[in-house]
Structures are given as structure tokens and as C-alpha cells.
Write a structure and sequence with these properties.
Blueprint: H1 2-21, H2 25-28, E1 38-50, E2 53-60, E3 63-70, E4 79-93, E5 98-108, H3 138-150, H4 172-177, H5 179-182, E6 186-200, E7 203-209, E8 221-225, E9 234-246, E10 252-263
Parallel strand pairs: 3-5, 8-10
Antiparallel strand pairs: 1-2, 1-4, 2-3, 4-5, 6-7, 6-9, 7-8, 9-10
Amino acid sequence: MRRLSAVLLLTLAIAACKKKEAPQPAAGAAPGQAAPSTTVKGKIVERLDADPYSYLRIKTEQGETWAAVPKTDKAAGADVEVTNAMAMPDFESKTLKRKFELVYFGTLGGADAPAGAAPMGGAMGGMGGGMGGGMGGGPQGMAAQHAAAAAGPADVGNVKVPKAAGADARTVAEVFAQRVTLKEKSVTIRGKVVKYNEAIMGRNWLHIRDGSGTAGKDNDLTITSAEKASVGDVVVVKGTVRIDKDFGAGYSYPVIVEDAKLSK
């Protein structure tokens, strides 16, 4: 009986050690420190697209797992290698309305790597650093970059810009108030650039204000564009309204204007 108890205790101890050795990079990394990266290699079983990512269910030698990469057209049956991948447990995609027990954020490697894609596990360098179409910085870096783009400026003084002309012209506050009816429609807004982040996730991010709306509620509108601007510029923005836009890592926007063209 004593011998049986000893064997049982030894078995439980080994199981506990194995459990502790299970990779938990996201939880184990210190604040602001990049989590260890890995490579996920295997055959695609399923692909779910949630712009700007593709979520791939991959059959590896160790079993099936999920990985998220910059949007790809790779289909089920294709062999892929996701490099610089970082584990993110209990990740929820609001776009897909789905929670993943574990998903690895990375970039396609080898011949499948997008031109100029930044490694997921690479250092961020700076908030305005080039992303080259990749996600860059892993889940933590991605979250930090979104934080840089999402947060409006603390104080920009008094802004008063006249409303743009045209049938689709709206003020910043009107875009917020009418966002449901404006979904996927083109709008034109004149505003002052109060914040600018360049080349995050392959696009430039602007915050514009025109004096309408209430601070902290509907006075600051986020714009994404391939074109450049500078803080202080008064620009006319023409782009598409998107609502409840989820970029992953917990960053979603109730309203955002994307693919915008800028003019003065």
C-alpha cells in the first residue's frame, strides 16, 4: 500500500512538472517585454478571414492549433510556416465573434512571406516605425501600436473648422451620431489633424477634430489612409465609414473612416 502511494505521488509530481513546462509566453512575459517567439509549421485545415488578419487552423506534428497572420489567400491543404509567432491565450476576435483558447500571432515565412513584412517577434523601434504590411511586435507590440494610434491627444486647444461641402459632407460629431446609417458609405469631413502615426499595420493613422462633439465622446475621429499628413494640417478627408471595427488585441473602434483620400 505504501509502495502504491509512493508511485501515485511520483506520477502526480511528474504531471505537475509537465503542466508547468507548458508554454505560456503571454502570461509569463514581464510588462513591456516581448514574449518568446516560436514557429508553427504544418498544413492548413481551415481559414477564417477577419480583416486585416487570416486565422489559420493548422495541423502540425504536435496536433492542431490556430495561428493569425496578415491576410492571405492560402487555402485549406496548403503547407505553411508561421514564423516569429507569439502565443496569445484566451484571445477574442469581435469580428469573428469567437474566442480562441490559444492563437499564435505571426507572419508567413519562406516563399509565402509578404514582401517587406516585419517580423512579429522583432523590436518595435518606435511607434511610428515602418510596418511594411506586417503586424509587427507580436500581440504585445500590436496592442502597443494600436494604443499609440487609438489614443487621442490630451490637449490640442480650441479647434474650429468649417464643415466640408457636398452631399456626403459630415462633421465629426455627425459621423458618430449617424454611424449606423453611414456604415460602408463614403463621407467627406474637413478637420484639423491633431495626432498622426505613420506606417502602423501598413497604413497611416490620423485623428481629426473640427470643433463639433463632446470631449472624450464624439469630438475626435480616427482615420486610416495611405497618404501622409502632419499635425496641425487642416485636411478634407474622403473615406469609407466602418463601424465596430476590430483590429484584434482588444482594440476595436465604434466608428472609423478607412482608406481615406486627403486634400487641403
